[in-house]
Every structure is written in structure tokens, then in C-alpha cells.
């Protein structure tokens, strides 16, 4: 890859949380804790689904896949950030940056597709209960997951291949704690019109189609629930969707918040803080949402470590997390003004 001065670039600088040295130990400890909780929590979900025969259903099959993807999604960014903080270096190689971006796009896309597949599963279970067992067979569920992997892989390959054609200036600084596609395109020295078009088209097509599918599924679900005569039947139908609806709301609201905050501010600190919400916080909270709101998962987890422990830890850590990110964002805003 040749930049304008015919010198090949070999590394990038990840600004992220690089400033504010007094906060570095706290940031390292917090993100290490969140990463370990994410891995441990999602592994528990996978273990619960695989070990309990009552959970061998399409809904929990998709949930186990989502947990695996969340572990991989977080692992593409957080370990590198922790190493940078510990070694006090902000450097990532060009090859490492491209590799990180490929896997980040891959697992972010998989999160998006799996949430849409899970919404489709709930739509079939509530709106077409008589045909549910016939349609949602293991082979069909596996095919849905396979198609999700294929589509996400193709999109990731396309985006990273398009990025390889760009030229970069020397000492490129990325205002994130990981290699983010939009930031990389903005930092390129060559013409990025085609990259911008492909990026926005793919985001609109894949992300928009998944979100539209989710909204349509829940529109039909709500319509079906309203047609149920008994209050107990309505509650039972809605209860099966509550956890998934919470995860969907958390995922899309945090992603939307990141891009709105990126458009409103040019601060690397604020952008990194906002990005941390959906790259780290959302995958960490997903297991807690399902363990707290799902009776079947509760029963399976109770045999492993005990639900009360999970409940109290999640309750305490969630409010600590909100407080920390609020203080972190305020600190970055005050520092920018100063």
C-alpha cells in the first residue's frame, strides 16, 4: 500500500484512551474486568444450553451462537487495548489493523444477523405455533446461522479489500482504541468516494434490512399478542420475547448513540468512550439479561453457580458501569473544553 510520498506505511497510532495518564490504571482494571465477565458470562450461557436437554430448542441454539459471537466480538478489540495500556504504547501494525478490522466487521455483522434470526424465530413461535416445529428444524436453524456467517464474511471481505486500495500518510492517528472502518477511510490520503459509497450502501442494506426484519417481526408479534383473549396468555407470549427485545434495544441504541456522538464531536476520548458501550458493554450485559429474565436459563445456571450470585453481581456491576462511563465522558468533555 503506497501513500502519496511513495513511502509504505507500517503502523498506526491508536489514540483511544491514551490521554489522561491518571486514569490509565482504572481504565485497565475496568476493561479487564468487563472482558473477563463477558467471556465468563457468555461461556456460562453456552454451557447451560449445551448441558440442559430442555434448552435444545431453536431459540437457545441461536442464543448460544450469539454468546459465542459476543466473545469473539469483544476479543477483537479489548485484548489489544489492554496490551497498549499495560505497555504504554499506542501502536498497531498495518497488517494487524487490517486483520482486526476484518474480524471486527465479521462479528459485528454476525451480531446484527443473529438478532434478526432470533426475531424471526420468535415470530414463527408466536404467530405460527402450529407450523413452528415443522419449519424450525435443526437443519433449517443451522442453515440460517450458516447464511449469516456467509453474508457477514462477504461484507467483511469487501470492506477490507476496498480499504487495501487506499493510501495513507505517515504517522496516521486513529481516534479510537481499535481500527474502526469509518476512521480509517477518513484518514486516507487518496480518493475515498468509492469506499464511502460501499460502506454506506452495505450498512444501509445489511443493517437496515436486519432492523426492518426485526421491526416487522415484532409488529406481527404484538398484533398476535393483542388477539390473545386471556391475560395469562398475553403475558406468557410477551415473556418469551422480553430478553431478546432488551438485547435488540441495547445493541441498536448503543450503535446509534456511537454514530450520533461521532457526528457531534471530534474528540477521540468521547468517541472511544461511546464506542466502548457497544463493543464491550453490550456483549457483557447480554448474558445477564438472559439469565435474569429467562426462567429456563435461570434453572440451568442454578445448577452451575447459582442465580442469586449472578443477580447481585450483575445488579451492582451494571450501576457501577453506568457511573464510570458517565464520569469518563464528563472528564473527556471538560478536558476538551479546557
TrEMBL record:
A GO CC term attached to the entry: plasma membrane
SUPFAM superfamilies: Family A G protein-coupled receptor-like (SSF81321)
Family annotation (PROSITE patterns): G_PROTEIN_RECEP_F1_1 (PS00237), G_PROTEIN_RECEP_F1_2 (PS50262)
Cited function: Putative odorant or sperm cell receptor.
Subcellular location: Cell membrane; Membrane
Protein name: Olfactory receptor
Lineage of producing organism: Eukaryota, Metazoa, Chordata, Craniata, Vertebrata
Species for this entry: Lynx pardinus (Iberian lynx)
Signal peptide: none
TM regions (residue ranges): 26-47, 59-79, 91-110, 130-151, 197-216, 237-260, 272-292, 304-325
GO molecular function, one term: G protein-coupled receptor activity
Record's keyword terms, sorted: Cell membrane, G-protein coupled receptor, Membrane, Olfaction, Receptor, Sensory transduction, Transducer, Transmembrane, Transmembrane helix
Cross-referenced PANTHER family: OLFACTORY RECEPTOR
Domain G-protein coupled receptors family 1 profile: 41-290
Keyword set includes Plastid: no
Main location: membrane
Topological type in the membrane: Multi-pass membrane protein
Family: Belongs to the G-protein coupled receptor 1 family.
Domain of life: Eukaryota
Record has Disulfide bond as a keyword: no
Amino acid at each position: 500500500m503506497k501513500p502519496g510520498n511513495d513511502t509504505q506505511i507500517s503502523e498506526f497510532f491508536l489514540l483511544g484512551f491514551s490521554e489522561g495518564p491518571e486514569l490509565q490504571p482504572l481504565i485497565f482494571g475496568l476493561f479487564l474486568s468487563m472482558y473477563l465477565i463477558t467471556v465468563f458470562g457468555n461461556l456460562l450461557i453456552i454451557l447451560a444450553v449445551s448441558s440442559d436437554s430442555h434448552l435444545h430448542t431453536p431459540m437457545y441454539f441461536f442464543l448460544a451462537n450469539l454468546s459465542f459471537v459476543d466473545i469473539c466480538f469483544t476479543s477483537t478489540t479489548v485484548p489489544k487495548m489492554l496490551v497498549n495500556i499495560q505497555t504504554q504504547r499506542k501502536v498497531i501494525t498495518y497488517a494487524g489493523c487490517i486483520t482486526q478490522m476484518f474480524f471486527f466487521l465479521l462479528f459485528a455483522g454476525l451480531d446484527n444477523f443473529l438478532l434478526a434470526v432470533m426475531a424471526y424465530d420468535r415470530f414463527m413461535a408466536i404467530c405460527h405455533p402450529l407450523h413452528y416445529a415443522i419449519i424450525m428444524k435443526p437443519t433449517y436453524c443451522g442453515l440460517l446461522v450458516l447464511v449469516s456467517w456467509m453474508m457477514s464474511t462477504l461484507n467483511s471481505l469487501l470492506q477490507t479489500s476496498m480499504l487495501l486500495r487506499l493510501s495513507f500518510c505517515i504517522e496516521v492517528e486513529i481516534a479510537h482504541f481499535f481500527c474502526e472502518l469509518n476512521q480509517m477511510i477518513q484518514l486516507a490520503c487518496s480518493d475515498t468516494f468509492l469506499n464511502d459509497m460501499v460502506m454506506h450502501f452495505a450498512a444501509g442494506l445489511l443493517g437496515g434490512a436486519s432492523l426492518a426484519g426485526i421491526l416487522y417481526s415484532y409488529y406481527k408479534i404484538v398484533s398476535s399478542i393483542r388477539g390473545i383473549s386471556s391475560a395469562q396468555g398475553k403475558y406468557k407470549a410477551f415473556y418469551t420475547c422480553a430478553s431478546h427485545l432488551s438485547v435488540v434495544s441495547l445493541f441498536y441504541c448503543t450503535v446509534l448513540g456511537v454514530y450520533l456522538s461521532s457526528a457531534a464531536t471530534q474528540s477521540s476520548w468521547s468517541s472511544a468512550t461511546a464506542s466502548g458501550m457497544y463493543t464491550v458493554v453490550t456483549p457483557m450485559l447480554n448474558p445477564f439479561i438472559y439469565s435474569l429474565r429467562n426462567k429456563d436459563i435461570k434453572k440451568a445456571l442454578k445448577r452451575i453457580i447459582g442465580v442469586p450470585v449472578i443477580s447481585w453481581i450483575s445488579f451492582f456491576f451494571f450501576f457501577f458501569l453506568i457511573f464510570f462511563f458517565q464520569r469518563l465522558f464528563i472528564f473527556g468533555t471538560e478536558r476538551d473544553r479546557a
